[in-house]
Amino acid sequence: MLLAAYNLVAWLAQPLLRRKLARRAVAEPGYGEHVEERFGRYDVARPEGGGLWVWIHAVSLGETRAAAILLAALRKQLPGMRLLLTSGTATGRAEGEKLLQTGDMQVWQPWDERGAVRRFLDHFRPDVGILMETEIWPNLLLESAARGIPMALANARLSEKSLRGAERGAWLMRPAYAALTAVWAQTEADAARLRAIGAPSVSVLGNLKFDADPDPALLARGRNWRASNTKPVVMLASSREGEEAELLRQIDRSTIQWLIVPRHPQRFDEVAELVQSQGLSLSRRSSWCEDGTPSPADVWLGDSLGEMAAYYAMADVALLGGSFARLGGQNLIEAAACGCPVLMGPHTFNFHEAANLAESAGAAGRVADFSEAVRAANQLVQDVAVHTAMREAGLAFAAEHRGAADRTAESVVKLLQGSLKS
């Protein structure tokens, strides 16, 4: 009865979803493309022929980058596989296009309404489904289980806050988690929470993001940018709404070159206006000259996609976005792998273990607020010995935890073998 109520709400909400997509498409045109795919209606047929169809769902940019790491390992272990990639956001879909090879397909994630999900599964008929990190959708999982499609949650994480939310909706979420075939968690703590909400066959394989190798060309680009500037560079990395304004109230423009890289590209213009409204001069990455040399300004704005490694290579210190407001933080593994020391705010519950491990390893420091962060950053860039130690600790920390991609790919192969035998 309760599942029927959920399905009714999902069905009734479809016009609202269409309006939401239309509004978002004004700022991000990608949301206005292929809209009918969201409702399980497709212009292209699933290609017939050989090869296993591996379906990976990566909702947004971060999950897509984690999926790319897994996919590289999968293609080695499953030569000839075909990828069906689904996304939920425009940035995730744009990033996912880079992963496609001949014979692969990419569409939007179907809205979690029973009819849309059934049309999606009937159309594409994947051999296995891999949901990245936190993507639990009741109809998607229950309908896949009904068709005998093995479904895994890879690079899985579940915070205490999310567990409490799932327990409040246990009537819906417990059956959804139970419909999974396997769960491959990032940490033991994540595994314990996933078991508590009813997920079966939970194992700990580590965090895929440790296996990402920073692009050497991007690292070189960032170092070249840094060499063009005499001041130390401090970056607010993957900033979220409200954090930029708080930082701008604290900064000292005389000794530090500030760099802000917003988490979401649709906020680039908003952050630019915010900086200028504070009487600060601004230079946007998109306006730098052809050789990429930053223009002089109080604040540089990283308004580009796919250059995060370059920004970390440019920065002497990174302040971790999402950790100063109650948003749970962001992934700091890439910063460590690029040799960039990190200062975190108090809120890192979405990446609890990685943040604590980085702090214990000496790759990151914890501060209470932006005021303390600015003071700590100023001290750090002036202390060569401490800065060098944090940089080297970050590189060692990132290297120490590698291997999740191969372990996860091997688990996918075993899952497929078990499915094919049955």
From TrEMBL:
GO MF, one term, reads: Kdo transferase activity
Q: Which family does it belong to?
A: Belongs to the glycosyltransferase group 1 family.
Arranged from A to Z, the UniProt key words for this protein are: Cell membrane, Glycosyltransferase, Lipopolysaccharide biosynthesis, Membrane, Transferase
The protein's name is 3-deoxy-D-manno-octulosonic acid transferase
Q: What is its EC number?
A: 2.4.99.12
Gene3D superfamilies assigned: 3-Deoxy-D-manno-octulosonic-acid transferase, N-terminal domain, Glycogen Phosphorylase B
Function, please?
Involved in lipopolysaccharide (LPS) biosynthesis. Catalyzes the transfer of 3-deoxy-D-manno-octulosonate (Kdo) residue(s) from CMP-Kdo to lipid IV(A), the tetraacyldisaccharide-1,4'-bisphosphate precursor of lipid A.
> Which Pfam families does the record associate with it?
Glycos_transf_N (PF04413)
Chief location of this protein within or outside the cell: membrane
Compartments, record wording: Cell membrane
Q: Which residues form the 3-deoxy-D-manno-octulosonic-acid transferase N-terminal domain?
A: 34-212
PANTHER family assigned: 3-DEOXY-D-MANNO-OCTULOSONIC ACID TRANSFERASE, MITOCHONDRIAL-RELATED, 3-DEOXY-MANNO-OCTULOSONATE CYTIDYLYLTRANSFERASE
Database matches in InterPro entries: Glycos_transf_N, Glycos_transf_N_sf, Kdotransferase
Q: Per the record, what are the reactions this protein catalyses?
A: lipid IVA (E. coli) + CMP-3-deoxy-beta-D-manno-octulosonate = alpha-Kdo-(2->6)-lipid IVA (E. coli) + CMP + H(+)
Pathway given for this chain reads: Bacterial outer membrane biogenesis; LPS core biosynthesis
Its source organism is Ottowia thiooxydans
For this protein, the record's SUPFAM superfamilies field holds:
UDP-Glycosyltransferase/glycogen phosphorylase
